[in-house]
Specification:
The complex is a heterodimer.
Chain A: E1 5-7, E2 10-12, E3 16-18, E4 41-46, E5 59-62, E6 65-68, H1 77-90, E7 95-99, H2 104-113, E8 121-125, H3 136-139, H4 142-155, E9 160-163, H5 171-180, E10 185-188, E11 192-195, E12 197-198, E13 203-204, E14 210-214, H6 219-232, E15 237-240, H7 246-255, E16 259-262, H8 265-268, H9 272-286
Chain B: E1 5-18, E2 21-27, H1 29-34, E3 40-43, E4 54-57, E5 60-62, E6 67-73, H2 77-83, E7 90-97, E8 114-120, H3 126-133, E9 137-144, H4 151-159, E10 167-174, E11 181-182, H5 185-191, E12 198-202, H6 205-218, E13 221-225, E14 241-243, E15 255-257, E16 264-266
Parallel strand pairs in B: 8-9, 8-12, 9-10, 10-11, 12-13
Antiparallel strand pairs in B: 1-2, 1-7, 2-6, 3-4, 3-7, 5-6, 13-16, 14-15
Classes of the chains: A alpha/beta, B alpha/beta.
Chain lengths: ~300, ~270
């Protein structure tokens, strides 16, 4: 059974990675998951400087999902390169680094700093709904996305994955803008902007008022958008959005994803990534699929 | 080395001990052996419609029996689901999590050291195991809104305290004044002139803030257990941070993770502003 997949010239041993922000830098899950057994570890968004993130509460559960407004708290690229990358390499993990910034300059500083690091892919986060400047500002206008993609591509030494926001009218327009800017791959979807009100206290549950909705509640949106982007644009796709099981992952793969990230499921079960991988293998066995690549975009 | 266990815990018993307060005993042997006072376990709901674990503090951990006693308040649909569990039922759990009041490496304090164990409401349960294991001349200062719970357990422990571990006294305050001192735990401390060289506290944020100010004023060391909305429970998602006065070495910012670096912090390091 062949599980290896290829994203922009990089081969991963299987199609399962983690959704950035849900798996820390990998080390936090080591007691539950063999990091080397994953296709790759996608690390939490990292910026040029440390970020304090948003006030608490940052988390709210919703039916079949959750809202978060962490606000991309991160230790900054220097500590990340010194501590987290060597640790992941020592554990034998493939690495996808999620990059965030408030401005083009900040994105480029991180991309530049990573140029000599043993990182397999860069995932550029232009779709976080929880920071006011940067992030989403680049991810909701095709021209802005085109420019940031082009600027990143000019200096990046690793293949560049642009992470798209679902909070747009036409996701294919954004996909084509990233493609025109030179992106090597796309990842989608980031979280969907939502809000929860505590009716007993008559106040917002999240200190940030709005947050990003994730979890199984959003999976049909992910499936639809991956399908649309796959039909509209030839770039490989890392799919994410509410994957809880191997069957869910197969659904995203059939819609067009070459690789699938497990996110919120890690909070429901710290072993979720391994179970998703086993579930994919079980599906392939049951349907006599010898190569996972046969299923990518097969619908 | 494993520090936390993921597994299926079996319900040994459950009863309601006050309005909305439940006393749940689980068989979860590996976790019971590892647990120290102040740590918590994450309990998972059956339905993925409620997908986040519920962090619940450990009230008692019996390594020999392999059991954990959890005393919790129903606060929403998840804890209401747990409140229906009966002996023989099972649920998914991960634990023990967090740092606890005293790490196993800590040298025990003198058994003559004066210790105040201050608990407010649903912050009282983790102090029971602490009262059992911690040496010192201990006073449990328990504050309730109205109905008492676990007071009998503290009284029993006080009645048969191991002399090698010092002594235990119990003092009670209630907001409605139906029992003990009327008012807060700090009203009780002032009224009865209770003194300690070190404070361990768990309770609502306003209480912890007041206890911290009280301790800092007097130059007393205080260890406080914080509560925050959590997602992963294992330090990955950065959902449950507390602001701290100094830059934390792990996060590299003025935040520490309540689930992983806490829930217990030195009062002096927490930035309440």
């Amino acid at each position: 059974m062949k599980l290896a997949v290829n994203i922009a010239g990089v081969t991963f041993k299987n199609p399962v990675t983690t959704a950035s922000g849900t798996f820390g830098s990998g080390a936090e899950f080591e007691e539950f998951v063999d990091l080397a057994a994953l296709g790759a570890v996608t690390t939490k968004g990292v910026a040029s400087q440390p970020w304090e993130g948003n006030p608490t509460p940052r988390i709210a559960e919703t039916y079949g999902g959750m809202l978060n407004a962490v606000g991309l708290q991160n230790p900054g690229i220097e500590l990340f390169c010194r501590r987290d990358i060597p640790h992941l390499k020592e554990k034998g993990a493939s690495i996808i680094v999620n990059v965030c910034g408030h401005s083009e300059k900040e994105y480029l500083e991180v991309v530049e700093r990573l140029s000599g690091e043993p990182v397999d892919l860069l995932e550029i986060n232009v779709s976080c709904p929880n920071v006011k400047e940067g992030g989403i500002a680049f991810g909701q206008k095709p021209e802005a996305l085109f420019h940031i993609t082009k600027a990143v591509k000019e200096i990046a030494r690793q293949p560049v994955v642009m992470k798209l926001s679902p909070n747009v009218t036409d996701i294919t327009e954004m996909a084509r803008a990233a493609e025109a800017g030179g992106a090597d791959a796309l990842s989608l979807i980031n979280t969907i902007t939502g809000m929860k009100i505590d009716i007993h206290r008559r106040q917002f549950v999240l200190a940030n008022r709005t947050g990003g909705l994730s979890g199984p509640a959003i999976r049909p949106v992910a499936v639809r958008m991956i399908y649309q982007v796959h039909k509209a644009c030839p770039l490989p796709i890392i799919g994410m959005g509410g994957v809880m099981t191997g069957e869910d992952a197969i659904e995203l793969i059939m819609a067009g994803a070459s690789m699938v990230a497990v996110g919120t499921a890690n909070f429901h079960d710290p072993c979720a990534t391994m179970k998703v991988l086993q579930g994919i293998e079980t599906y392939m066995k049951n349907y006599h699929i010898s190569d996972i690549n046969e299923l990518i975009g097969c619908i | 080395m494993m520090t936390m266990i993921k597994g299926t815990a079996m319900v040994l018993s459950q009863k309601m001990i006050a309005d909305g307060i439940y006393d749940l005993v689980l068989s979860f042997p590996e976790a019971a052996r590892l647990a120290v006072p102040g740590q918590f376990v994450d309990l998972y709901c059956r339905s993925a419609a409620r997908l986040l674990p519920r962090p619940i503090s450990i009230c008692e951990a019996d390594a020999r029996e392999g059991s954990l006693r959890l005393v919790y308040r129903t606060a929403g649909a998840g804890t209401r689901e747990f409140s229906h569990l009966k002996a023989g039922d099972s649920l998914e759990a991960v634990g023990p999590l967090g740092n606890g009041f005293i790490s196993p490496e800590d040298a025990p304090a003198r058994n003559t050291e004066k210790v105040l164990l201050i608990g407010g409401g649903i912050g009282i349960p983790p102090l029971l195991e602490l009262a059992r294991r911690l040496p010192g001349e201990k006073i449990a200062v328990l504050g309730y809104k109205d109905a008492l719970f676990l007071k009998d357990d503290f009284d029993r422990l006080a009645g048969r305290a191991d002399p090698a571990l010092g002594s235990l006294r119990v003092a009670v305050a209630t907001e409605d004044g139906h029992y003990g001192c009327q008012g807060t735990v700090l009203d009780l401390i002032r009224e009865q002139k209770l003194e300690g060289e070190i404070i361990y506290a768990c309770g609502p944020m306003p209480m912890l803030k007041a206890v911290s100010a009280y301790a800092l004023d007097r130059g007393i060391k205080a260890r406080i257990s914080l509560e925050e909305r959590m997602a992963c429970g294992i330090g990955a998602c950065l959902g449950c941070i507390t602001k701290v006065k100094h830059k934390d070495h792990h996060t590299n910012v003025h935040n520490r993770r309540v689930c992983k670096d806490g829930p217990v912090f030195d009062a002096g390091e927490v930035d309440f502003s």
